[in-house]
Design brief:
five-stranded mixed β-sheet, Heat Shock Protein 90, two-stranded antiparallel sheet
């Protein structure tokens, strides 16, 4: 019977519904067992199995009357239990009734039967079934009951399972309690309860932990612990793949993993996870999850500038919203507001915004579900230049973020306030909010760094213990060899003594010689030991100086990067005062140049190598920056062929500025009338340490009679000047577009020191 109740309790989760035929083989087998059963207790078991089976079928729209069948079989089980005075069967039927009434939304009846089950199993002092009864009582009115009361009931179920020694069920209760705590934004408590759940599952030798890991992933994601969230995301996906889990439950695994990767700005990996979750939700026709995941995919594709790819998901989402329960409509509608604003369709955005406002009106101001409303109103009013209204909702968003102590939300809200201040020319306030945004951004990064340091310390301790163990083993081996040698010498001395007196004298002479050698060796060893200690002390001092220098260099690069970002922000703020398009363009170009240098310093302080950077990674990030700032979308494609080459900043900075000038020039001038185009970037190293950078586009090129005049522009002067800094050869030619090639020697010595 325990197996039946456990199955009944699990059906509140997603149910995997396979294609069904009119003559269901599983149902036929259950009926056959029921017909052949001669024991009333067994008949009750099979009737409850049939009730469960029909409840599963009722979730499929093709079987609308299956819920009636579920009630019918539960009623038969109750009547038989009552007629034979079988209290166990009565209690289990109460539990089945509670689940069935909760399924159809009659929460008072669901609570009534759950309470009856609790009373019966309390009287019977049956801890395991009492745990089952408390669990259905917790779920019976979860939609309308006070959160704290629901969690309190959950802990009673956990206590009963603990008394019964059922670690698996106790762990399941920890997971349920954590979900309620997450809903009330008590994330730290939820994290601790989930840690306990993992421990209990492992003690019970339960391996299907993919959804447990994904829950820990989303909790740490909401707490801003990005590295830990990624760790649990990978564990969840690996576990699901190892167990070949293709059920509807795995939708959550990929959805939460996508959110974790999105938090660390790995949009490609996040998109891959969301699209996997989307395919599975479509397979199971889960409209709620399909709408939620569509929202996530739309936001990423719009940030990528891949509007055409986002449109099918937008259409799908618009079609699904009307079919969702009211409680699930808010977030997808907020996404539609933001997407339509980004696409310039303000009328459509306003239409969905009205629905978001209407829905959110019934929520308390401090409810975390208000965040989609506030962010939608901020985006809409900012895009329509109603800055005071945008600020009003930004302040409300800020209050919520502070209440829930969410560092990621606080970083986001200070960025929003910085944009509003800049738009209203409130530069002092803008800089204040910018600094606060950076503080929260750096704090999230430092938390991850602290963890890396702790892991290194653990590894160091392990290696140290291993070395000490090997040292002791070597010492024991030497002592053993010395002992064997002394034994041999003693036997030899006795033999010589017994042979003759002359031999004894000879032995004595040899002994004196050996003793003298031993004393000389001891003296030599003492001198060598003293020299070794002196060398070790000098090495320790030098290592300390090297470590301090590396940290100092990282701090310098960090501050240089922050100062360059500050300059970019000031230029951006200044641009609001300018009306002249030429001046505006000059400021934009200056910002691009500053960013190319800022990115180098960012790479230097974020990596372990503080004096050189990998140009392959740097160039790819620079390209992503140009895509975002020029909104190239799919119009311009970048084709790269780049070796992993480490350059010191003396060569990386001028090379980055050359890349900035050439790529900017190609984007702005090579493809007039919004033509599609390709920009090829090739950076290779030959065997003789010669580096060659080629940037070629398939645009309009430059006419020969205009080429000389083009050399006098500021951009070309900068390219020539930076080429001279590199002692590089500069070649420019028209070849179905413009091609610029720079050839120079790789400087493998750091001239900054």
């Amino acid at each position: 019977m325990a197996r039946i109740i456990t199955l009944l309790l699990l059906i509140s989760a997603f149910t995997s519904i396979q294609a069904q035929v009119q003559n269901d083989p599983k149902e036929k087998a259950l009926h056959k067992n029921l017909k052949n059963s001669k024991s009333n207790v067994k008949r009750i078991e099979f009737l409850l199995n049939l009730s469960l089976h029909h409840l599963e079928k009722s979730r499929d729209l093709n079987f609308p009357k299956s819920s009636d069948s579920a009630f019918y079989y539960s009623a038969k089980a109750y009547n038989i239990s009552k007629s034979i005075r079988y209290e166990q069967g009565i209690g289990e039927t109460y539990i089945a009734y509670s689940i069935l009434y909760h399924e159809i939304g009659e929460y008072d009846k669901a609570e009534k039967y759950a309470l009856a089950a609790v009373g019966l199993f309390l009287k019977k002092k049956s801890d395991f079934y009492l745990g089952n009864a408390y669990q259905v009582l917790m779920c019976s009115k979860e939609e309308v009951r006070d959160f704290e009361e629901t969690v309190k009931i959950g802990y009673q179920a956990k206590k009963a399972y603990h008394a019964a020694g059922s670690k698996k069920n106790e762990a399941d209760m920890c997971t349920d309690i954590a979900y309620f705590l997450m809903g009330a934004a008590k994330l730290e408590q939820a994290s601790k309860v989930m840690d306990e759940a993992v421990k209990l599952y492992k003690e019970a030798k339960y391996e299907r932990l993919q959804n447990v890991y994904s829950t820990l992933c989303i909790i740490n994601n909401q707490l801003g612990r990005n590295e830990k969230a990624i760790e649990y995301a990978i564990k969840a996906m690996n576990t699901a793949e190892k167990l070949n889990d293709t059920s509807a439950m795995v939708i959550e695994v990929y959805n939460y993993s996508g959110l974790a990767f999105l938090a660390v700005k790995n949009r490609e990996k996040a998109l891959e996870c969301f699209q996997t979750a989307y395919r599975i939700s479509k397979k199971y026709n889960d409209k709620g999850m399909t709408a939620l995941i569509s929202s996530n995919i739309i936001e990423i594709l719009i940030k990528f500038g891949r509007i055409n790819e986002a449109i099918p998901y937008l259409n799908d989402l618009e079609g699904k919203i009307s079919q969702l329960p009211e409680a699930d409509k808010l977030e997808p509608m907020a996404v539609l507001v933001k997407a339509n604003i980004k696409m310039g369709r303000l009328g459509k955005a306003e239409k969905y915004l009205e629905k978001v406002i209407a829905f959110s009106g019934g929520l308390p101001p401090n409810d975390i579900r208000q965040i989609p409303l506030y962010t939608s109103l901020i985006d809409y009013n900012f895009s329509t230049k109603k800055y005071p209204v945008a600020r009003k909702y930004a302040d409300k968003y800020k209050e919520l973020a502070i209440n829930f102590k969410n560092p990621k939300r606080l970083m986001d809200v200070y960025h929003v306030l910085f944009r509003i201040d800049s738009a209203e020319n409130k530069f002092i306030s803008a800089m204040k909010n910018y600094k606060l945004e950076r503080i929260y951004s750096d704090s999230l990064m430092n938390e991850a760094k602290n963890k890396e340091i702790a892991e290194l310390e653990v590894k160091y301790d392990i290696n140290k213990k291993d070395k000490e163990l090997k040292k002791n083993q070597e010492k024991n081996r030497v002592l053993s060899l010395q002992s064997s040698l002394q034994k041999t010498q003693l036997e030899k001395a006795n033999l010589i003594k017994n042979i003759s007196l002359g031999g004894f004298i000879a032995f004595l002479i040899v002994f004196i010689i050996l003793y003298s050698s031993y004393k000389i060796k001891q003296k030599t060893n003492r001198i060598l030991e003293s020299q070794k200690n002196e060398i070790n002390q000098q090495n320790a001092t030098l290592q300390k100086l090297v470590t301090e220098k590396e940290w100092l260099l990282k701090e310098i690069h960090h501050r240089v990067k922050n100062n360059l970002q500050m300059v970019m922000s000031l230029l951006n703020a200044q641009s609001f005062y300018l009306k002249d398009d030429v001046a505006m363009s000059a400021i934009k170009e200056s910002q691009h140049r500053i960013h190319s240098m800022s990115l180098i310093h960012k790479k230097l302080y974020q990596s372990e190598n503080v004096v050189s950077i990998d140009m392959k990674t740097y160039i790819k990030e620079l390209i992503e920056y140009f895509k975002d700032n020029f909104d190239t979308g799919q119009r311009i494609q970048f084709v790269t062929d780049i070796d992993s080459i480490e350059l010191y900043s003396t060569q990386a900075v001028p090379l980055g500025l050359i890349l900035n000038e050439v790529i900017t020039n190609s984007i702005k001038h090579a493809f007039p009338d919004a033509d599609n185009g390709i920009i090829n970037i090739r950076f290779r190293q030959s065997e003789n340490k010669t580096l060659t950078l080629t940037i070629k586009d398939n645009g309009t090129g430059i006419e020969e009679n205009v080429l000389q005049k083009h050399f006098e522009t500021l951009g070309m002067k900068l390219i020539k000047g930076f080429s001279e800094d590199l002692d590089a050869k500069l070649d420019i030619e028209n070849d179905n577009g413009l091609s610029i090639t720079i050839t120079f020697l790789h400087n493998e010595k750091n001239t900054e020191q």
